[in-house]
Amino acid sequence: MKINQLSLFLENKPAHMKVPCQILADAGINILTLSLADTQQFGILRLIVRDWERARDVLEKAGCVVKITEVVAVEVPDRPGGLAGLLDVVDQCGINIEYMYAFTFRRGDRAVMVFRFDDPDEALRTITEKGVNIVESVELFAEAGE
Question: What is the pTM of this model?
């Protein structure tokens, strides 16, 4: 199952990260996980929230530029070599990872990682065939206390 992620382009200046976070807080929308990547002038804030459509609407209404991207949440054994093993499966399948980041909770002895693949449908099909557990959005939100 794919999950919708919000990506916002922010100017790389003090307090610019706070603006979208405050907008979402004021709307009662909880951020489940996020990633911030920067360049010298701009950053990309990537967010996962339960109600992504409402989040997109309130952010756009406030003047933010928002892009919706499909990502995949995958269980990774939380031990030395766990991620390397998953990446071996991904490499064997010929899937390109554009970026990835960790989710904010664990599932027993497994961490959850968020991946942006160049072809998320093919990634889902091939890595599940290899026995990799995909985490459904319903599971993510429930385990994150949402």
Answer: 0.80
Residue 26: give the domain boundaries: 2-69
Residue type, 40: Q
Q: What is the CATH number of the domain that holds 63?
A: 3.30.2130.10
Q: What is the largest CA-CA distance in the chain?
A: 45
Beta-carbon contacts of 132 under 8 Å, excluding residues fewer than 6 positions away, are 74, 75, 86, 89
What is the rounded distance in angstroms from the CA atom of residue 2 to the CA atom of residue 22?
27
Q: What is the pLDDT of residues 30-78, one digit of tens each?
A: 998 899 887 778 889 999 999 999 999 999 999 999 999 999 999 888 8
Of 19, 44, 69, the domain-final residue: 69
